[in-house]
Hints:
Number of helices: 11
Oligomer: single chain
Strand content: 15-25%
Structural class: alpha/beta
Distance between the termini: 38 Å
Number of strands: 14
Helix content: 25-40%
Shape: elongated
Strand order of the largest sheet: 3-4-5-6-9-10-11-12-13-14
Order of helices and strands: EHHHEEEEEEEHEHEHEHHEHEHEH
Largest sheet: 10 strands, mixed
Amino acid sequence: MNDVKSMLPEELEAAMFELGQPKFRAKQIFKWVNSGAESFDEMTDIGKSFREILKSKFFITVPKMLRKQVSREDGTVKYLWQLGDGNTIESVVMKYEHGYTVCVSSQVGCRMGCVFCASTKEGLVRDLRPSEILDQVIFAQKDLNIRISNIVLMGIGEPLDNFDNVLKFLSIVNHKDGLNIGMRHISLSTCGLVEAVDKLGNYNLQLTLSISLHAPDNETRKKLMPIGKVYSVEELIAVCRRYYDKTGRRISFEYALIKDVNDSVRQADMLAALVRPIGGHVNIIPLNDIAESPYKQGNVREFVKLLADRGVNATVRRRLGKDIDAACGQLRRKAAGKN
Length: 339
């Protein structure tokens, strides 16, 4: 059986043609599943006899909400979803002045092994299908009765390690007959898979690319992020230049500030020298507490000033949902009895 929510309208049109149905049937089905229909029986503008045929050919993914936590401090909502095979993922909905943003997962677990991240502690289980990424947007909207206007691919998993499924998700969520969320309202965060960044640049999607840098020198980055042993900082900055040249989109560099690890004056000098020539923006991330991690947060205010004095635009990410373990991977690990 085919995963109908992972299909683009043109793929649905081809499937409907094979079933002897008119093209408009594909548009009907696409709209229904992207509006949150949980079964073909809900598709009341499609005849009952054909709905039975659809049931025999396709399935509709529906995640089970295992847990929902709402922050008393800022209203941030964190979900723990159970997928059809029993695996769990997380997503977070945050309210800003400009609207609602959802942070979605792209994999079950992660193979990247960054030392400060809870998502990667048990490694990668599997990739998410386009439908399973999309469901995090659709069912959060349904549950909260809101319109989500922005998406951040910064949850569990490395999006560019699941390249094809993530790219298809982006096409579906951007489609005018679906959720119609513009590419400039979507951010994708990657630890820096150089070949995949090059490949993404070729599509010129106009989304916001965020690079998890976290250290301006190879020695420190290798300690924090195993991917640093595969790609040097110099290779990463070079691909960022190529990406900018292809897309014209400014790149954001994420920097989790860790006391006595990546917060020195010398490292501020090095970071400024890397990002200033390409007009990069630095997003300082206050470190999340992970029980088994020895790393502690550095002096955020002081480091931002160091960068500003060196001509680099730096902002501090708001810590939303701190009281509900809103950081990626924390809720999933607690649910599994790991904390």
